[in-house]
């Protein structure tokens, strides 16, 4: 029988010991994996359908404040928040007095309204345009472009309600312009400005 060197015997013992350690570790790993509970095991990931966005509503009655609306700086005429009974309606309104404004334009700018892209929204407002010094009220939307929405002419001596649908592509704000044509008696007023991320229901 061939003689086996002492070094070879030592090497075989070391290899055998390592093999035993590996077997023991594999057995421990298998036991650990088998012991995983159902809540620990990897779960299959499914794509979830996005939730439908909730409709948002911006309503300003002007009773407490102007809701972040401001007058454009480079116009000489101004909308003023006034408490009065106007055309039979008490409370606070945003008003332009033709006798104060003369031949001029007052422009009120709303804050930006957050929207969901490519959504049909609705703008609604109560308004009065009355008297020989009052000309018209115009509302323009500004998102990715400037878009005229409404032109409301003189002849509304009582409060009138109007609404208009529009498709919005990004956050939008509105310019509300009151045009007066002389210092003759006349008033242009707005109230209950509403922006809703739903189509208008009573648009004419």
UniProtKB/TrEMBL annotation:
Residue stretches making up the MAM domain: 58-202
A single GO cellular-component term on record: membrane
Name this protein carries in UniProt: Putative mam domain protein
Secretion signal span: 1-19
InterPro entries hit by this protein: ConA-like_dom_sf, MAM_dom
Pfam families found in the cross-reference section: MAM (PF00629)
Keywords (A to Z) from UniProt: Signal
